[in-house]
Amino acid sequence: MKQLIYIIAFILIGFNAFAKEGTTAQAAFNQANEAYKTGNYVEALEYYHQVAEEKQGVTINYNLGNTYFKLDKLPESILHYERALKFDPSNVDVLHNLRLVNAMIVDRIDNLPQSKANIWWKEFRYGLGPDGWAWVSIGLAVLAVVLLLLYYVSPRRNIRRFGFFTGILCLFLMALTIALAQSAATYRNTHTSGVVFTDKVDIKSEPREGSTNVFVLHAGTKVSILSQDGEWYEVTIASGNQGWIKDVDFEEI
Asked: Model pTM?
């Protein structure tokens, strides 16, 4: 009996601590919003970062991106918009603001040419992100259960047939969306990228200071990380150019 009481007390203490953390984060978020509305962006930034330490997500990173933009810190703004897209790749507001900020940085990099089919497939496969596909699969699962119940309980043969075949189709689509969710999660976890923070940085041919400069990047440019060698990272940009950059010159998304 004592053990049960201890367990219940432990759970209640943990729940109260969790609720307190949530309340603290919400209070900081509200204070940040008020500071942002009054134009006190430095104070807003402090409160938003307090929230970000406790909880990550599309909203907090979107707000951080907006605040950094107001402070004319474009690399930081781009970094947080990109982090927001990791949670919601198809968020219209984030994509719009990111395009605006990217138009203000120094580097103009053309993407490697891709077929329309390849572009469409990538947008379809990764556009919703793992969370989005997970919700779609849950919806299909619920629909499948309803339709299969209809098959079992309906006295009318045509409705039963409809319920059975449509329910099976929903189960098939559910399996497909689960696979897409897993694929999107794997892509998000394995394809790391970063944003250049140094005003101007020489990208090297090898992971050492004395190696040849292959091209130059400026603050705000996004890079995809290929490999790491100590403090050096091999990166590629949208045009396909590759080289090595030090960890102090960029921030990982």
From this structure: 0.71
